[in-house]
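Example 9 (inverse folding). The structure is encoded as follows.
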């Protein structure tokens, strides 16, 4: 098979520019990753790569890798697979919500940037970022702007994407490090909250729930917490919320280290103890819905809050919405303008 045909097959399903000449610049939207199937085997393959990254778990390899493969993966793969199965999307375009929405988001951004080739990639799992970069080179692309779908920078996420770029020399790349204070993105999140509340009514309190990090990483200089707080304040300001009408918390704790506080579960319990019965929860650290938002927040934490007498109303991520696509397209245009 000719190289061009092989590349087209490898990128099959990825959006392409409607122009007659192939674009020489690509935009790669990178998300974290997801299992290919909601099965113990699929989850085990994914978690082995994800949790095997030094950026994610910084324990000494001699200690962590045997523990990971002999204890963590055998114990966690089956229960985690059940969680994925509870949110798996059906249909021809079905699959893990994170993969489905990331792919659809790339298509939506492609419509906003017809002069580029816009594709999706994953840091862990498939389609892998490294493979995508090689495929783009084979397709004749000259350079790639890499936009991790993490609005807030962290050494555990964005820096890990940069690690791949440092290893791969398929073509010149430029990394978007964060966009937590980008006006287009802030407006898109604020507008999505307004739309949800206009349709269903406003809850008594708005809770911003971000993925947690070990406290030691923040103590070592990771800016993630500052980015979360700054973004949440900017969104709350756009919504004209008083300080007592919103708060911020962190979810998805893993391991025994001290993590960022307050936790989302503890915050919900405290709100219930204060007599707050209706809470809107939004997760602006996630570009698209995934297991942490759909299973952990909208299902597990909602059930827990109900046991404390409250109603949790989850506000979906921006996903593949037009405002999201336009915000990311705006970020890409600015980055490309600065890339000389």
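The amino acid assigned to each position is listed next.
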């Amino acid at each position: 098979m000719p190289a061009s045909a092989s590349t087209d097959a490898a990128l099959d399903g990825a959006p392409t520019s409607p122009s007659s000449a192939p674009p020489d610049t690509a935009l790669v939207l990178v998300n974290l990753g997801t299992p290919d199937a909601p099965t113990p085997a699929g989850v085990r393959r994914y978690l082995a790569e994800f949790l095997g990254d030094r950026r994610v778990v910084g324990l000494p390899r001699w200690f962590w890798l045997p523990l990971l493969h002999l204890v963590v993966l055998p114990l966690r793969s089956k229960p985690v697979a059940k969680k994925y199965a509870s949110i798996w999307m059906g249909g021809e375009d079905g699959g893990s919500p994170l993969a489905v929405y990331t792919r659809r988001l790339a298509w939506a951004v492609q419509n906003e940037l017809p002069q580029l080739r816009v594709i999706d990639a994953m840091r862990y799992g498939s389609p892998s970022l490294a493979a995508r970069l090689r495929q783009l080179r084979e397709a004749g692309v000259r350079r790639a702007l890499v936009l991790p779908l993490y609005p807030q920078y962290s050494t555990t996420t964005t820096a890990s994407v940069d690690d791949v770029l440092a290893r791969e020399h398929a073509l010149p790349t430029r990394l978007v490090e964060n966009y937590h204070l980008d006006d287009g993105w802030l407006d898109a999140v604020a507008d999505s909250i307004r739309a949800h509340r206009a349709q269903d009514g406003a809850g008594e309190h708005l809770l911003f729930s971000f993925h947690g990090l070990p406290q030691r990483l923040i103590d070592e200089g990771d800016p993630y917490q500052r980015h979360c707080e700054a973004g949440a304040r900017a969104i709350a300001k756009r919504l004209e919320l008083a300080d007592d009408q919103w708060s911020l918390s962190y979810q998805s704790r893993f391991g025994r280290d001290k993590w960022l506080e307050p936790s989302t579960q503890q915050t919900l319990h405290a709100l219930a103890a204060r007599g707050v019965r209706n809470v809107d929860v939004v997760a602006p650290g996630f570009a698209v819905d995934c297991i942490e938002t759909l299973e952990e927040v909208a299902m597990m934490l909602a059930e827990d809050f109900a046991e404390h007498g409250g109603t949790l109303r989850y506000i979906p991520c921006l996903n593949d919405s037009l405002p999201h696509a336009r915000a990311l397209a705006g970020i890409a245009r600015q980055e490309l303008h600065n890339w000389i």
